[in-house]
Every structure is written in structure tokens, then in C-alpha cells.
Write a structure and sequence with these properties.
Elements: E1 12-14, H1 35-47, E2 52-54, H2 63-72, E3 81-86, H3 97-109, E4 116-119, H4 125-128, H5 132-138, E5 144-147, H6 151-162, E6 170-174, H7 181-184, H8 187-193, E7 197-201, H9 224-229, H10 233-248, H11 254-264, E8 268-272, H12 276-287, H13 292-305
Parallel strand pairs: 1-2, 1-8, 2-3, 3-4, 4-5, 5-6, 6-7, 7-8
Organism: Streptomyces evansiae
Protein name: Aldo/keto reductase
InterPro entries: AKR, AKR_Detox_Biosynth, NAD(P)_OxRdtase_dom_sf, NADP_OxRdtase_dom
Length: 318
């Protein structure tokens, strides 16, 4: 077994957007971030106790990992946790593609280990899980998680690791007010029963649940998220307006209400941060306590919106 159990802060910091290069049509988020701005984000996160950073080799094909390393430069390595991913779909054809991709990630991030390594997509669980074992034994990987896996795929990965004395300690799947499949499929219950930390990504649905965007103010044209959400923003208005009203009563935003909802579900939200003010919002969300009637009302409004926000990469997963 890993010597120490996985311990993480209430909210993890996502850097998917840090991989964008800012050119229209060549990024999912359609924005460009300055190195100095991201360093300010990292410092604000440190001062607020947000210490877990989530990235992936596939985010900008390494650009996110590189930008993260630059933002964290100067901070003591023991003061933060690094989470990155092995993505089978971009695996090389060497003798050990998992180790190869990890070594490239370590080089980009300027470190000798990652605290949490995810198998990004299930692909072939029996093939890609065993190569994690020597990485755990070496200490280059401290903990293992799986992302976009079903309950059955998670159980298989856990059994394969268990044969060597390790286990899957975390799951990272899409979970938001608009996408509650992990709850409905029993994945959240499975994680609770087996002491597996559930990380919820796309809690804000790439900005569509922040209350900032609507039919009159769509997401940036030419970006991947605009193509996914702009056509349904009008259907989300009753939900985002109610989130805004709930937040206003607490001196918070609609986005912070969405994060507080995910926390109330017992998950660890992974929230993208690109501005220091975003970190301040996470601090407010961390302290927010939604009532049971508020949670039920938000879920009813989300169901009424009747939108499918599954990403292309998760078709067929729960």
C-alpha cells in the first residue's frame, strides 16, 4: 500500500484552460493567459490553502504542465500537490508508454514525482493499469486515480492494483448540476462505500453555470466551449438566475453556488482558475452551506433545462 492515505483540500485547482494558446479556433477556451497573471493565481491559491493542482499531458499537449511549473516556481515542492494524467489515446509505441508519458510530464513540471496520477480514459483497463505498479513502487507516483471510468471499470482497475498491494484512491468524472450521471449510476455511492475520493470536474460547465453568460452574452466565438454551450444558454437561464439569487443572499456569485452544491454532494470539485479573483471565489464557496430545499430546487431547475453536456470524450461513460 501507499505509505500515506490520499489527503486533499476541499477544492482542487484545474489548469485545463492553461493549455490554450489563445488563437481563435485553436483552443477550447478561447483565451490567452499571461505568465505573470498565472503566478499571481498560484500565490493567491497558496495563501488560501488550495494546494492541489490538476493538469494533464494532453492539455495543450504539454503547455498546461509547462505553464503550471512556471507559475509554481519558487514555491517549496512540499507545499503543493501535483495531479496529472496518462491519456491512453496519445500513448506512444515504446516498451512502456505509461512510464514514458510520466517522464515527459515530470520534465515539463520540473519535479521527480507526482502526488496523483490518473488514467485519463478507460480505453483498455487491463492493459493500462498494471504499468502503474512499478511507478508506485518507485515513488515517482504517490497515488493513483481513474478518470471517466464506470463502476465496473473502476472495480477492475482496483482489483489489478490490489494484487500488488495498491489501490485506486480517487475517481475523477464529469459531475455538475447539469450532469449527475455519476450519482444516478451509483458511482458516488461506490466511492463512499470504498473510501475512494470522488473529484468532480466541469462543475461550472466551462463557464455556462457561472451566470456570466447568456443568450445576449455568449461564450467566446471560435472556442470549443462556445460550440458546446451557446445553443443552450437560453435554457439555462432559470437555473443560473436562481443560483445568482441564492448567492446574492450570501454575498457570493452563481458560480460559487455551483461549487458549493458539488461540495454538499461530498465531492472534491476541480475548478479552473485563471485569475486571482477566482481563488477568492473558491474560498467563499468552501464556507458556503446550502440548505436541503435549495439543493432540491436547483436540481429540479437543472432537470427542467434538459440539456446533455457530456463531452465527446465521455460518450458511453457514466
Amino acid at each position: 500500500m501507499t505509505s500515506d492515505a490520499l489527503k486533499v483540500p476541499a477544492v482542487a485547482l484545474g489548469t485545463w484552460a492553461w493549455g490554450d494558446d489563445g488563437r481563435p479556433g485553436d483552443g477550447h477556451f478561447g483565451s490567452r493567459w499571461s505568465a505573470s497573471g498565472l503566478r499571481e493565481v498560484a500565490e493567491r491559491a497558496r495563501s488560501n490553502g488550495f494546494t492541489l493542482w490538476d493538469t494533464a499531458a494532453v492539455y495543450g499537449m504539454g503547455r498546461s504542465e509547462t505553464a503550471l511549473a512556471q507559475a509554481l516556481a519558487g514555491q517549496d515542492r512540499g507545499a503543493y500537490l501535483l495531479s496529472t494524467k496518462f491519456t491512453p489515446q496519445i500513448a506512444g509505441d515504446g516498451d512502456d508508454p505509461v512510464a514514458d508519458m510520466l517522464e515527459q510530464s515530470l520534465a515539463r513540471m520540473g519535479t521527480d514525482h507526482v502526488d496523483l496520477l490518473w488514467v485519463h480514459n478507460p480505453a483498455d483497463v487491463a492493459r493500462w493499469t498494471p504499468p502503474l505498479i512499478p511507478l508506485l513502487r518507485s515513488g515517482r507516483v504517490r497515488h493513483v486515480g481513474v478518470s471517466n471510468h464506470t463502476v465496473e471499470q473502476l472495480a477492475l482497475a482496483d482489483r489489478l492494483l490490489g494484487e500488488a498491494g495498491f489501490r485506486v484512491e480517487a475517481v475523477q468524472n464529469h459531475f455538475s448540476l447539469l450532469h449527475r450521471d455519476p450519482e444516478r449510476a451509483g458511482l458516488l455511492d461506490h466511492c463512499r462505500e470504498h473510501d475512494v475520493r470522488f473529484f468532480a470536474y466541469m462543475v461550472l460547465e466551462q463557464g455556462a453555470l457561472t451566470g456570466r453568460y447568456g443568450p445576449a452574452r455568449p461564450l467566446p466565438e471560435g472556442s470549443g466551449r462556445a460550440a458546446a454551450y451557446n445553443g443552450v444558454l437560453h435554457r439555462l437561464q432559470p437555473l443560473t438566475e436562481r443560483m445568482g439569487a441564492i448567492g446574492e443572499d450570501r454575498g457570493a456569485s452563481a458560480a460559487e453556488v455551483a461549487i458549493a452544491w458539488a461540495l454538499a454532494k461530498g465531492t472534491t470539485p476541480i475548478v479552473g482558475v485563471t485569475k486571482a479573483a477566482h481563488v477568492d471565489g473558491l474560498a467563499r464557496a468552501r464556507e458556503m452551506r446550502l440548505t436541503a430545499p435549495e439543493i432540491a430546487e436547483l436540481e429540479t431547475l437543472a432537470d427542467a433545462a434538459d440539456v446533455d453536456t457530456r463531452g465527446w470524450w465521455e460518450r458511453g461513460t457514466r
